[in-house]
Amino acid sequence: MACLDFVSDLKLFKSMWKVRVKVIRLWKQYSCALGETMEMVLADSKGDMIHGTVKKELVSQFVILISQGETKLMVNFIVTMAAGSYRPTKHPYRIVFLPTTRLRMCDALPSNLTGLDPVKYESINDGSLNTDYLVDVIGQIVEVSHVKVVSVNGKDTQKLSLELRNQDDDRLPMVLWGKFATDVNDAIQLRGEHKIIIVLRFGKIKVWKETNQIPAPPDGVDITGAIAVEPEVYEIKKYFDASFSLYETGLVMSDEEVLNATLILIDNLLRRETSSLANFETMPKPVVTEHTFQENQLLQDELNYDRDELSVYEQIIGAVESKKGGVFFVYGFGGTGKTFLWNILSAAIQSTGDIVLNVASSGIASLLLPGGRTAHSRFGIPINPDEFSTCNIEQGSDKAEVIAKASLIIWDEAPMMNKHCFEALDHTRLPFKMRRRQFPLKVAFAMTINKSQGQSLERVGLFLSRPVFSHGQLYVAFSRVKSRKGLKILITDNDGKPEESTMNVVYKEVFQNLLSSKFTQESH
């Protein structure tokens, strides 16, 4: 392939580059300053790697075009300086996608091109490693603790201490947190006494003083990143050669060991239902060793909550406490934890003696909110507002005082409202935050779209004998269901014959800031 540039050729002040690269790693990242971006590590045929970024306004354009492990021909992008304390490669520059960047199909680079570059334990232990760079860590687990639940910054999380060794028998203490801790602990339980290799890709290293480690070193190393246990990666097999004989024995289990691992899994499943194999006299029991220690499964399940909710909570509470204010559009399908988030926001603010106003776009939806009222009633919005309307609130009235002193306004099913309703409130210069919500299941055989507001349903059949007639109706109907699989649509013409399309009614201004807000999917 002629006229190709290599990663090592990339320089500043030029956009007409053409490189063939493999997507080594791909993830989404959220920050208050940049919003949700798409980050990646790219490698060329020489094995040189560079960090790539798709800014928030272009994520929707490129998200369906890039997948981890694919090889792409990239044309027309800019190169900027790489900076920060979370740098996934040592390349001095970073690729930034443009609206005109093109991704084309091309010959795939080798499958064994993974960019894996294991760090030397010595450079971590002696402090000589530059911790601004993310690193790859490989080792055999030689010491491990039980999973513990500890309080970090006032919040409970899982913690697993362990020690690794490399082919030179150097040792490295590690601490894993949260899901990483439970994933590795589960892998240890499955493999019993077998030797286990752990691989961490693009991990962040932090050093702190701690005296109660396994083994107890003067310094512990906290590494967080992407973890795999005994993955099929060429460099790993090459890195761990016959000095450990790990791959000669580590993946082989006897019939008894397979049985024991299966019993452990069954017992864990039963524990989630407040039972165990001990309750069944005729069933064999797993052999429990220090590596098959069984935690309180109910406790682990309760701690396995969605961290995205915490991010949204902290942003909104931060805006309230700092008096900075703001507008937050929180969205998501049924079952994503919006009810819990709304409850905790209201409780947290009301516990300090501040006011939270809960309003909805219709009377039916307002009945599902404790103390809820319709937006028209609460704010005095005209029945037929226009672009010049203001709210019917008398200055100095009780209603004006309540609204003025409110720290947070939660507005349910906001997209159902005419845009002039929001403009009327804005014209009245009342601070508010906009929010849409869905609420738990209410049994019904059939209902209108308006009646379905606030429902979260497993399956929805939408019958459209004629197009919707109001802004946001189609959106409300589609968002009642928890998954795309549970939605069926029948569209007919005037003669009752099936159609493939219908007309929607949307005020586009409502969604203009949708991409700048986030019901967070993933953090770095």
TrEMBL record:
Ranges of residues in domain DNA helicase Pif1-like DEAD-box helicase: 308-428
Assigned EC number: 5.6.2.3
PANTHER family according to UniProt: ATP-DEPENDENT DNA HELICASE, PTHR10492
Catalytic activity: ATP + H2O = ADP + phosphate + H(+)
Family: Belongs to the helicase family.
Replication protein A 70 kDa DNA-binding subunit B/D first OB fold domain: residues covered: 5-105
Keyword Metal-binding: no
A single BP term in Gene Ontology: telomere maintenance
Record keywords: ATP-binding, DNA damage, DNA recombination, DNA repair, Helicase, Hydrolase, Nucleotide-binding
Cofactor: Mg(2+)
Protein's UniProt name: ATP-dependent DNA helicase
SUPFAM superfamilies for the chain: Nucleic acid-binding proteins, P-loop containing nucleoside triphosphate hydrolases
Superkingdom of source: Eukaryota
Primary enzyme class: isomerase
CDD domains listed in its UniProt record: RPA1_DBD_A_like (cd04480), RPA1_DBD_B_like (cd04481), SF1_C_RecD (cd18809)
Source species: Brassica oleracea var. oleracea
